Each structure stands twice: as structure tokens, then as C-alpha cells.
Amino acid sequence: MSNQNYIKLFSPEKYLLNAVIIFVITTLFYFFGASLRLIDELSLFWPLNAVLAAVFVRNPFLNRSVYYFVCYSAMVVYDAFTTHWGWQSAIINLSNMVFIIVVARLLLRYSRTQDESNWALNAFNLFYTCLIGSILSSLLGSIGSTGPSSDYRQFLSLFTDWFGEQFSTGVLMMPFLLMATWPQWKTLPDFHISKIYPLLGVIVSVIASVAIGGAGSLAFPLPALIWCAIRYPLPVTALVTLLTGGIEIILLSNSIIAIHPNKPLVVSEMFSARLGIATMAICPLIVSVSVDAINRLIKQTSLRADYDYLTGIYSRSGLYEALKNKAPLMHQPDQKICVMLLDIDYFKRINDNYGHECGDIVLAAFARRLSQTVGNEGLVARLGGEEFVVACSTRSEEEGYAFAEQIRKDIELTAFRYQQQTLFITVSIGLAATSIENQTLLDTFNSQLAQADKYLYLSKRNGRNQTSMASLNECVIKV
Ligand SMILES: Nc1nc2c(ncn2[C@@H]2O[C@H](COP(=O)(O)OP(=O)(O)OP(=O)(O)O)[C@@H](O)[C@H]2O)c(=O)[nH]1
After folding, report:
1. What are the tens digits of pLDDT across the range 234-270?
2. Ligand 1: which residue has its CA nearest to atom 30?
3. Does the model's pTM come out above 0.90?
């Protein structure tokens, strides 16, 4: 739960404030739920339990008996003031608590076994958690409402009604409540008309459900919702799914979506339709969670491929990508592409004398120093082992040579630290520079890299700690 955009109301140290906020939220949503009961169309929803379960999941430190008790007390106090207090009220509110605690505890237990990015997101898990929470809560609630001596049919009708309400509200609301973040206005992608097509698809399919009717019409929005899951971020998909499911339930209960033309729904059909809508709502979420996971994986994999793990600078493939992006900048007619191949001298001795860990630290520090020296003048990558490359554009070979020498001297004078030791290293450089003619930047880079390799060999052969390149008359410039 490290995401900084999450809405934070609670804090592990502020016990009293937490208790007050829980009391206020419970009272507000109890009032809200009771007010919905007065409007026929909205009486099918009881959002309190899903909201509180989400509060407890998002703030695991709140999962203590004392906060559960505050929550329960708020419900009972509300009842005492607005209706009447009695054992029925005590049991019905207890059934609300059963849903809240079971769902929160199960989701938290599951999230502990998952990596953080996946916490409570597994839509299947949410589905089964809401199912278990709704069954237990509805059982207790129905027994509490009818009493032990009531007739079986009355109990069953109350149970299905209660269960349908808890389950559909839970499955529709919980994903959004668990995922909601403050929008990051600054980082929102640019708007393009094509982005609203999936949403339009949902609206059109709900209209089609009303126009065509019949049992199948409940599933009409599914393809458009899955389209939303592919195009929109997870919280937006969760919100669109919640609104679509909620609207479908309202339209259905008012026979605006007519399963049987000219015949209102009987209770059992309403129960089945609500379950159907909740089941449908979970599908786009499964897709959305999968798309999210795939995108993370692609990002992670490309990060791994494009950056060298040890030094954090570009790998060879990262350098190629960066060169592709830089092509327009480097492709200037009066500029030359300059490629320097750098190889640390006698690096094996560092490993042999101070250990492999020291070798790693020196490689990372060397890469940092090299990147600092090159700055915005070029691109730096590790090709492997103790071999690095710098690609830059210069006006002439001489300018490239001067730059390579500046790097070489800077490394020679840099003190590298390992534990209490100070180490000095030198580097040999092979350099090649040419103007881009009829080749692509990547082809030019590759041909110059092969040239630079030859001159690196020359630098090594001639005693190391020097830069070699082809001068105009193909002789070796030696320092
Ligand atoms: N610590 C560490 N060592 C590495 C890494 N990659 C390669 N090496 C070591 O780098 C050393 C390279 O040795 P050589 O190729 O013989 O070259 P050198 O000792 O630098 O000598 P010259 O290049 O000829 O000056 C080997 O000992 C490799 O094990 C790495 O990631 N970490």
C-alpha cells in the first residue's frame, strides 16, 4: 500500500482520530443507506458494508477489535436515535459487521501472500470473498429479522433478497473503493476523441438492453466493458463497471429493462438477475487486472533489457533504443558520429587483489564518473565486463579525440573508494569517428564500433592508458 496517490484519512499512531473518523463514516453511510431505502429505485443498494470493508482493507492497522466495536456502536447508536433499539437491531447490525470483518480479513490475508503490486487486486479473490461475506452476513441478518420460529419460505425470500443486495453491491463497489486514487492531473495523457469510444460503447449497449429487453440483454454491455478494461486504467474501469452494474439493476427493478415484456420481475428473477450482473461485472475487472499486470511486466522486462543491472547505465540494447530516439539530433550534416570504446586496464587484478565485490563497486563507480563527465554531450553504455562505450556527435575527429582524452585523464585522477582502500585505475580507449552518409545512424554506429575495437586493441598493445584512433593518414596518435 505504498502508492502515494491513495486517499489517506487514517494514521497508525492517531487512535482517537481513527475512532472518530470510523464513527463518522459509519454514521454518514448508515444515514446514506437509510435514505436510499426511501427512494424506490435506489432501495436495492446498501453501500455501508462495502465502504467500511474497503476502509479496513486499505488501512490494515485498523483491523482491531476496538475499531470494529466503534463501527458497530455507530450503527447501534444510529438505530437508537432514528428507529428503536432492540435485539433485532443488534443482530442486523451484527450481520453488517460480519460482512465487513469477513471481507476485510480474507482480503488482507490474501494480500499478505501476494506481492504488493497485486494486493487485493485479484478480481476472482474479491468475488469469492464477497460471496462468503454475503452468505454469512445474510444468514445472520435473515435469522435476526424473522426470528427462529418464522416460516421457511419467508426466511428464504429474505435471505435471497439480503444476499443479492450484499453480494451485488460488494462486487460492484469494492474494486473501485479499493483502487480509487486522487487523479494526477499533471500526468494525465492528452485527450483524444478515440479515448471515449469504449465509454460510448457502454452507453449504447445499455440503451440496446432497454430497447431489446429479454434475459440476454443484461450481458449486452459486457464487450464494451472489456474494451474499457483494455483502454482505461484499472480505477476508471472499476468506476465504469460500478456505474453500469448499478444502472442495470435500477433499470431492471423498474422493468425498464424488461426480462419478460408486460410482466414485472418476481423476487427469484431479481435475485438471479442481480447475481448475473455482479458476475458480469467481475469479467472486465479480471481483464483489467491482467492488462495491468502485462503492462507492468513489459515495463519491467524492457527496463531490465535496456539498463545494465550493476551500473544502472544503458545496456547495448538500451543504447540502440536511445540512438534511435536521438537520430534526428545526431543526424546533422556538419557533425560526425564519434564512438569511443573504453576498457579498464588490468581490471582482473582488482578482482584478484580485493575481491569480486570490490570489482563490482569499482565498475559501478566508474560508470557513474563516466556518465558525469560525458553529461549531455553523449550516450554511455556498458557493453559487458569492464568494457564501456560512449557515442556522441562532434564537429571533427580532433574534437572527438580531445573529448576522449579528457575522459581518460579524468578517470586516471579519480580516487575510487572500497572500504578503507583508495584505488586508482586507468582506461584504454579506441576511437572512431565519421560523418553519416548514406547509412542509418545505427549502421554508422555499428561500423564505427568495429573500428573503435581495433584501435582499443592498439591502445592496449601500446601500453594502455591511452587513446588511439585513425588519424587522417591512418597513423596511430599516441600520448
Ligand atoms: N567484479 C566484476 N568483475 C567482472 C565483471 N565482468 C567481468 N569481470 C572481470 O573482469 C576481468 C577482465 O579481465 P581481462 O579480460 O583479463 O582484462 P584486464 O585484467 O582488465 O586486462 P586488460 O583489459 O588486458 O587491461 C575478469 O577477471 C572478469 O572476471 C563484473 O561484472 N564484475
Report:
1. 889 999 999 999 999 888 888 888 877 777 666 667 7
2. 385
3. no
